[in-house]
Amino acid sequence: RGFCLSRGLGDVYKRQGLLPPVPFHGQHQAGILPPAQRATAVVSFDATAEGRGELVELFQTVTDRARFLTAGGTPAPTGINGPASDSGVLGPTVVPDGLTVTFGVGSTLFDDRYGLAAKLPPRLTPMRSFPNDNLDPAQSGGDLILQLSAGNSDAVLHALRDITRHTRGGMQVNWRMDGFCSPARPSGTVPRNMLGFMDGISNPAISSAQQMDKLVWVQPGQADEPAWTAGGSYFVVRLIRMFVEFWDRVDIYEQEQMIGRRRATGYPLDADSIFATPNFGQDPTGDIIPLNAHIRLANPRTPQTADSRILRRAYNYDRGIDAVGDLDMGLLFTCFQQDIRRQFEATQKRLINEPLIDYISPFGGGYFLALPGVTGSSDYFGRALLA
Q: Can you give the pTM of this predicted structure?
């Protein structure tokens, strides 16, 4: 049973340091545009539903649970001898803490199990392996993808337990990565990654509907796109190990030359403010910002590369230590775009053999399509796809 955001409840959120509910219904999924939340989990699933009918039930169940969890409320009681209706992790009342649920499909869902082969979007393919990647099949791909983000980890884990409980028999976890977004340090700047540099400074403006329609959302009538994809967005997940112990022995000047920004301030090497646009045209030989600096390769800022920009959403991860005792931490990179080949892959090709490759190792992730939004109480994720 959902509840309204009363003034009293808003005061409770503020007092407890929690975020208010994010509206679930809309043309697009609500978790795509907002900046990275404090906590996230990206979970890949294999579909185990038997036939098209059970797959429809699965998508409806995911929708129903997402609708409740993002609004919050008191879980419905069960019978006297029935199991508890909720894990209780958040207490007797589910407070969403800004929870968003982003749900998508991978290319492997479109096989002969569910009769969806004819509806496969040509742009939805298995994830490509680039030079310098070290992809682990056990941590790559999947029929379905779920990203849960919220203000605190307990809200994320509560939602994950709830959804997996209600979908048992319909989908099974394939791989999972938990992430966190660090506070901006210093305050008022941009969160930092595990290399110590600010991350996501030059994203497209989410306030510009024109930019979002050009770069993020699949448009109605877009060439080579099935009608059911309109309002969705192509979702790339890339798991990137960072060899932080090795990186920490590198001179700061050399680090800045590889990135193209000052580590302390985030300023481009040729500017004196964080959001300044690097002037590559005034530095054609790379005397100030090297020609192979990360920011220069990723976004050359030319008319020819303007439509290859992506909406970047990066999180840090920390999994303790690996089998030989090295620190296992890095980047849970996610991004959204209208066309993976035109945007993510074009960017990634420019980054092949950049100097940073000695300190990072992409090892997993996948390509997915974040489904169009759920428009109302009678709608559900993927309804146009499964109709």
A: 0.94
Residue 381 above 60 pLDDT?
yes
Is residue 80 very low, low, confident or very high in pLDDT (cuts 50, 70, 90)?
A: confident
Q: Residue 33, Cβ neighbours under 10 Å: how many?
A: 17
- Beta strands in 166-222, from DSSP E residues, in sequence order: 171-180
| The one-letter amino acid at 36 | A
Count how many residues are written for the chain. 387
DSSP string for 9-51? HHHHHHHHT-PPPPP--SSS-TTSSSPPPSEEEEEEEEE--SH
Q: Which two structure tokens, joined as six digits, stand for 296?
A: 């220069």
Strands 171-180 and 327-337: unpaired
Tell me the CA distances in angstroms from 207 to 35, 204, 233, 266, one per residue in order: 12, 9, 17, 22
- Exposed, middle or buried: residue 151 (CB in 10 Å: 0-12, 13-18, 19+)? buried
Residue 87: is its pLDDT beyond 80? Answer: yes
CA angle at 58 for the pair 57 and 62, rounded to the nearest 5°: 115
Burial of residue 15 (CB within 10 Å: 0-12, 13-18, 19+) is exposed
